[in-house]
Amino acid sequence: MRRIAEPAGRELLEALGVLLQRGQDADVVRRDAAVPEVHALLVGVSRAAELAGWDKGVRDRSLAIVFDGLRPSGSHDHLN
C-alpha cells in the first residue's frame, strides 16, 4: 500500500484499522480483511463512481456489495 504522507490520511487509516478490528472482534467482519484491502476497495469504488458519474443508486448498491463481502462466511444478514 502506498504510504499516505498527510497526517489526516494517516489518521483515517488508523481509524479504519480500529473499526475493522472492532468488527472482527465482534465476529461481524471477516478475519482475513486487513486495512490495505478495505482501503483499496473503498478507494476503488469511490473513484469509479466519480469517474463514471454513477447515480446514487449504483453507488449505494456498489458499496452494499463491498460491505456484504466483508462479512464472515456464512453470515446471512444483508444490507438493503
What would you say this structure looks like, in words?
The protein has 80 residues and is mainly α. The protein has three helices and no strands. The protein has helices at 7-25, 35-52, 56-70. Helix 2 runs antiparallel to helix 3. The chain is flat and about 35 Å long. The protein starts with 6 loop residues before the first helix and ends in a 10-residue tail after the last helix. The mean pLDDT is 87.
Please supply descriptive tags for the structure shown above:
65% helix, flat, mainly alpha, 80 residues, single chain
Helical percent range? 55-70%
Oligomeric nature of the chains: single chain
Q: Tell me the total number of β-strands.
A: 0
Terminal-residue CA separation: 31 Å
Q: How is the main sheet built? A: none
Give the overall average pLDDT.
Answer: 87
- Class computed from helices, strands and strand pairing: mainly alpha
Low-confidence stretches: none
Series of secondary-structure elements, N-terminal to C-terminal: HHH
Portion in strands: under 5%
Q: Round the Cα radius of gyration to an integer and report it.
A: 14 Å
* Count of helical regions: 3
Summarize the structure.
The protein has 80 residues and is an all-alpha fold. Helices cover 65% and strands 0% of the residues.
